[in-house]
Amino acid sequence: MPVRVRCAPSPTGYLHIGVTRTALFNFLYARHNQGRFLLRIEDTDKERSREEYTRSIQEGFAWVGIHSDEPPIFQSQRQEYYQSLFNQLLSEGKAYRCDCSKERLEELRASQSARGLTPQYDGHCRERTDVSPAGSVIRLKTPHEGTVALQDSIYGEFTFNNADCDDYVIAKSDGTPTYQFAVVADDHAQGVTLVIRGNDLFPSTHRQILLYQAFAWDVPGFAHLPMILGADKQKLSKRHGATSLLAYRAMGYLPQAMCNYLVRLGWAYGDQEVFQMDEMIEKFTIDSIGKSPAVFNPDKLLWLNGEHIRLLGISELTEAWLDHLDHLDEDQVYLEAAPGTSQPIRVPDLAALRNPSHRDWVELLVGACQGRSSTLVQLTDHALPFLIRDIQYDAKAVAKVLNAEARIPLTEVLGWVQKHNPLPDENRIHEFLDNLAKSLDIGLGKVAQPVRVAVTGRTVSPPINTTLLILEKSQGHGILAERLQKALLLIPKAE
User: Fold this and answer.
1) pLDDT for position 352
2) Sign of the dihedral through C-alpha 354, 355, 356, 359
3) pTM of the model
């Protein structure tokens, strides 16, 4: 039987890391087995479902490269299908209408709890024939004897006692299906062969299998994934940091790194840590998924993202960086909490960076920043002195580096820059700086570091010859003299 799997998020919030991990596992399983991956939007919760959340789901999956092999279906558009199934169960005596009041149900639960019993519906309306459809719910008439067996592909064999499952609601009083009903109806309609989902949904499995049996439908396989926990071993939530997938795009993470990290939350292939998508597809199997909860480690994700940044070719990384900037609002600034940022950064002029005539120096800049960037936000931070006209000088850098000893090297470099328009290549720039250091009988660092602070405002930048060349190409030759002169004014005058 051809493999068909699905991911079925509810648009009641932005796309979550946990849902993305579940979708990825389904996607990899489908691709590994030459099957089909399907997306279903479970939007029957009218009060909490929003279009912006649906867009977040679709945009997030597109970002990480998880694509549905068939057009997504929306449960809110399938009411006629559900109604036909309700009518079938009612006509076959496998379901019934119930008009028990909220007060009666609350009293029933309280009474059962007081007697140490598990609260469940007592079947009060099970045999009634006088319940009006108006305002009533529909309950499944579950068997009270026997058992249901489940062979979970991850956790093994389980047996459920039918006596533990009450006649649960499958249709609300307004006629819309409950989650338990709609998920089964749609998994059957879509031909799902294996349900891969989080093990927080494991308690629903017994009820869903009973519904399959009521319709005499084939029951799919089940594979329940271990939960994702925070460092405190509690369920992953906002208190552990960002949980929305697209928040990580804004923080400068690569989609391939996110997929790589998420697949390692519960799945392993030996000791290998870094995977490309084609490798994950080739090596992914259900048998390699563990049973223990996975712990979300932001530091590990940051490290892995840096690895993927360094694996990219310069042209690929440049496109990834520009795409990242393209998804930010025009006046958006990065959060100070974003890993590796020294200060909030305004988005650079994207139109100028995408200008084909600027491609050479943009790629030179990206290549110069690649080795020291673990996120695209860090890359922007490192690139900032090359992208803006007026830089801010770091006060500590000025105090430490722009001292009286720096005056002569900076003056010599200023004079040389003014004589060479445009600058020669990187090798000749390095040769000049090295010869200058020798002529002044000082180390090259005593020349390079004052120049670095002078032209970037910082103590860290790409190699100084590369820094000067990129600055000239990005801001024009005059910027070098302008910044060197400004730095000389920052050196305290001798008393």
Assistant:
1) 86
2) negative
3) 0.91
